[in-house]
Structure formats: structure tokens, C-alpha cells
Amino acid sequence: MMKRHIMAVGAAFAIIAAGPTNAQVLTFATNAQGSLAYLAGVAISKLLESKTDLKARAQPMGGSTTYIPMIARGEANFGFTNAQELLYAYDGTGTFEGKPNKDLRYVGMVFPLRAGIAVVSDLGIKSVPELRQHKGLRVTSGYTDLTIIETYLKSGLSAAGLSFEDFKHVPVSGFVKGMLAIGEGKTDITWISMGSGAGRKAMAQLKSRGGWRYINFDTSPEAKAKFRKMVPAGEIVLEKNTKMPGIVEPTYIMQLRYMLVTSAKADADVVYKIVKTIAANKPELVKSFAAFRGLKVEDMGVQGGMPYHPGALKAYKELGFTVGSEMISGT
């Protein structure tokens, strides 16, 4: 059954991904509806249709573990991932162990992604180290459609001297389902991306328990060094905006660059046009999705770990934006 499902999804993408010369619709593969990726995909698709002759749509799927290889093969046009997963996917390490995707190409950074470990508020827990007194609580696990989420949970716990095995595992298939699980009372601990629709829904579901809250990562020098070793592309930052769901007080959470990628097979003129359109229209993107406030247009071309798409590189050179020169030769 699963094999037939994957083949059917792949066939559907192959038809859509035939490109602008055939179906005239560009697909932006995203995580499920309610995720940041989906909202970003909708915003960019809307922008392209209003500002260019391109037609585009967001295509929600279970998670990037599934759709990244499809993008590399050219079966979907574009997609979103974070910097750590991108390194794994391109090199065939970590959550993509033995399965490199060398045809992936970098398009641009869309905004910094912030996320963290969240717990039900009435548990009274404010930091990851405090979980040492709460071993046996339930934590979401598995994430078969986006396996790197479990890696982040494990890393945050391990940096504070805890093991994932100290807690009862609640298997979920995808990131959105993991966020919704805390709202449905199925788990006590989960991973939530800041500003996500699923996180907001879970907050409303937990109204009688005070909602959920982010808890502080261990910020001791030893813990930060250990976390950075496990998640090299991530950094622990202080989020001060208490208007954001889950930020009860200034809280240390994780930040990663969130990126748009494509295939080496993608049309260079299309990629060029997309980069130039995003760079020129940040206010329009912000109107569609507030997370784009974090977009620093001049930093769109800064990345590392994989080659640029030639169309993106051409756009950045014309715009005068900084690019990672160590990867230019890889295009």
C-alpha cells in the first residue's frame, strides 16, 4: 500500500513538474498544511502569480524527508528545508545516511526559522534541565515524514544531560501531527516551530491547561558546545517577543536558516526570475505571511554546503549580494 502511495504521489509530481513549457504550473513542495513551509509556499506562489507570468502553487506533503529526494530528481520544482537537513540531504549523512541527493541546488534563504522544545504549561517546567525531575513524561517520536525533528529533540535533551530514552515515546508520522499531539493531550513534550498554524491550534486546544510553552535550552558553555556538535547548522538564541505563542518570558530556543531549494535540472531563467521577484517584494511577502519579516534580502544568497543553481547565482551577482564563493565552482 505504501509503495503504491509513493508511486502515485511521484507520478502526480512528475506531471506537474514537467515545467513551465508544459503544465505551466510550478510546484513548491511543503510540509503539511499548518506548517511554516506550507504558509511560506502559499506566500511565494501568490507573489509569483501577481508579479510575474509564472503560475505556482504550494503542494503540501507529509514532510521534507519525503519530498527532498523528489526535488533532487526533478519530480517537484521547488521545496523548503532547514540548513541542517539540507546538509544531511545533500551529503547523504544524518537522517539521509547513505542516500545523498547531489542534484539538489540552492536557491535562497527565505527567513530564519526558530523552534524549540515545548511542554504543557501546567507542568510548571521552564527549562530543559528541569526535565531531569520529570523523567517518564511522554515525548513525540519517530516523525517518519520529517525524521530530523526527532534529532532536534534528542540533541536538546542530550545537551542537558538527558536521554531520549528517559521519556515515553509517542510515535507520530509528521511534524504537524507532532505539534497537534500536545494539543490533543497525547504527549507532554514536543517540538514546535514558532509562529506555525499548528502550534497556534494546539495552544487553543490547551486553553484549560494554560496552553503550552517553550522551555529554555541549557545555555551552559558545555551544553551549547555539545548541542552545536550535534546540530552544526543550529544556534541557541534568546527569543524576547512574548507576543509569540509559547514565549511566556524571554526564552532560549533554536534558530536555523530556512531555505528554498530546487534541482540541477530546473530552468535557469525560472530560478533567476523567482530570486529577483522575492528580492524585490519583501513587503508583499510579509503581508501574506508574517515570518517573512525575518527575511534579510541582502543575505538571501549566503549559504554553505551545496552548489548554487546557476539561475540563482546569476541573480545574486546582478543584485550585488554576498554568495558563498567556495561553492560557485560547484555549479
Gist?
With 331 residues, this protein is α/β, with parallel strands linked by helices.
Features:
D-Maltodextrin-Binding Protein, domain 2, 2 domains, 331 residues, two-stranded parallel ribbon, 21% strand
Write the topology of this structure:
Blueprint: H1 2-16, E1 26-30, H2 36-51, E2 56-60, H3 64-72, E3 78-82, H4 83-91, E4 104-120, E5 138-142, H5 148-159, E6 168-172, H6 175-183, E7 189-193, H7 197-205, E8 212-214, H8 221-230, E9 235-239, E10 251-263, H9 268-280, H10 282-288, H11 310-319
Parallel strand pairs: 1-2, 1-3, 5-6
Antiparallel strand pairs: 3-10, 4-7, 4-8, 4-10, 9-10
Helix pairs in contact: 2-10, 5-8, 6-7, 9-11
Please characterize this protein's 3D structure.
The chain has 331 residues and is an alpha/beta fold. It folds into 2 domains: 2-111 and 258-330, Periplasmic binding protein-like II (D-Maltodextrin-Binding Protein, domain 2, 3-Layer(aba) Sandwich), CATH 3.40.190.10; 114-256, Periplasmic binding protein-like II (D-Maltodextrin-Binding Protein, domain 2). The protein is built from 11 helices and 10 strands. It has helices at 2-16, 36-51, 64-72, 83-91, 148-159, 175-183, 197-205, 221-230, 268-280, 282-288, 310-319; strands at residues 26-30, 56-60, 78-82, 104-120, 138-142, 168-172, 189-193, 212-214, 235-239, 251-263. Strands 1, 2, 3, 4, 7, 8, 9 and 10 form an 8-stranded mixed β-sheet that branches. A two-stranded parallel ribbon has the order 5-6. The radius of gyration is 19 Å and the shape is globular. The protein starts with a helix and ends in a 12-residue tail after the last helix.
